[in-house]
Amino acid sequence: MPSTQAVVKEETAVLGQPLKRVEDPKFITGTGLFADDIALPEVLHSVFVRSLYAHARIKRVDVTEALKQPAVRLVLTGQDLLNRVNKMPTVEEGGDTKPTDRPVLPVEEVNFAGEAIALVVADDVYSAEDASELVQVEYESLPAVVDMERAASPGSPRVHEYLKDNIGYRSTKSSGDVTNAFREADHVIKLQQEFPRLSAVPMEPRNVIASYEEASGFLTVWLSTQAPHEAREDIAGILRLPETKVRVIAPDMGGGFGQKGAVFPEYATVCFAAMKLGRSVKWVETRGENLTASSHGRGQKQFIEAAVRKDGRILGLKARIICNGGAYSDWNFSMPDITIGMAPGVYDIPAFKAEAVTVFTNEPPIGAYRGAGRPEATYLIERTVDVIARRLKLDPVKVRLKNYVPKSKFPYKSAGGNTYDSGDYEGNLRRALELSRYDELRDFQREARAKGRLVGIGVVTYVEVCGFGPDLPQTASVAVSRSCTATPPQFLGAQ
Fold it and tell me: Which of 166, 207, 233, 442 could form a Cys-Cys staple with 35, CB 3.0–4.6 A?
């Protein structure tokens, strides 16, 4: 029997060691299997008809000419789905986020340009595309709002008439005596900055393939998704199916970056079409659709005030954030709460007060993207520290060193409400300065600028909240045969 010491050594041998990737060969050799590579027998293809307006009432949707096309098998509108499927999942009543009423396909109103209005299913994607242009939609234009500051103002056009205003979410955090901190400060540094909206732009856009077995009532969905279990739950809920009758298979994925963690109306619509036709139906998003109709990330305006001593010590920080939530709400509306919770960063800030609001606009809904609220927090505090250094004519390194949470204070409860278990921020930065030969770089910078050349040196340190695992449960199952070998079970529910 190996000794306990030997076992421990073997188990920890991977720490700090380079690990050989096991997934690369199929991608290097071009043998990966992406959703569009899946060729099911007699699969039909689909194309969405999308809104030309950011905000409008739908007066009429005429699909007559599209249905006359010989290759067209089905055209679905919001009226076809009405009372036959549930609406898109939203947040619960009574929470901090206002729930919105979102049909899978809109019946009365569109709330952003690019919102899916109808689905055309045909024998091939070209016929579906041609037929989609024959769908006639009559609109009545409504006032739209796309500027987040205007959306937050009392006189703004409302995205949803059934809500009293466009404020979809509000959160506040505070710590310490902010009033006294600003009274005692030598300087109050104010700045405004914007984190613009963006799209994830995955190399492989969104897609879905649905196949329905009428005899068993079983729906199989191939989906480029980062969250197959959540997708199964949502798709089953929308289509009024038991979760045990839905299987989601996640093939290889050509990029997700957070955007593919959500379930979109397009997925449910394609699944409904497959159930209605008894045929497999595929939808592959175009690049234009991905940019205009999928979820967008970021979208924040930040208003910051820092109470500072003349030596660069931060006594207090105030922040107000407006986030562009887009047309419909879900859990992503609370994303700026992550931002204000992380806003103090690695700094020991005695007094802190922050407010975050997410507003409705006539744009695609906000979604997770590459950090989901956390890069925005790092941008907020790190640029603030740089502005402090510039305004007070101090070295940005010295300002950081003066404000770091000292090693002796860990575990540390930050002004944003997070507990940091350990850290040595000063030690890390001093080592980075040594390795980069920072003083020499500054000398080089001064010499270059004296000759008219612009040379920049960036310094940034951050800490990131990552403990979301308990909120995202996943399951796995393994079947062991009589020969003691592990085999995949007949049904996993999600793969």
Answer: 207
Q: Can you give the CATH number for the domain in which 414 is found?
A: 3.30.365.10
Amino acid sitting at position 491? F
42 and 117 inside one domain: yes
Query: Considering the domain boundaries, does residue 391 fall inside one?
Result: yes
Residue type, 309: R
pLDDT tens digits for 55-104?
999 999 999 999 999 999 999 999 999 999 999 998 876 678 999 999 99
In this model, does residue 183 exceed pLDDT 80?
yes
Is residue 473 assigned to a domain? no
Collapsing DSSP to helix, strand or coil, 427 comes out as helix
CA distance to 150, 167, 288, per residue, from 153 (Å): 5, 9, 31
Cis peptide before 411 (omega within 30 of 0): yes
Cβ neighbours of residue 130 under 8 Å, at least 6 residues apart?
Answer: 69
How far is the C-alpha of 217 from the C-alpha of 398, rounded, in Å?
Answer: 66
Distances, alpha carbon 77 to alpha carbons 161, 210, 400, in Å? 23, 18, 57
Q: Domain range holding 208? A: 35-142+201-293
What residues does 442 pair with on adjacent strands? none
Residue 353: phi, psi to the nearest 5?
-145, 130
> For residue 368, with 0-12 CB atoms within 10 Å meaning exposed, 13-18 middle and 19 or more buried, which class applies?
buried
Strand, coil or helix: what is 175? strand
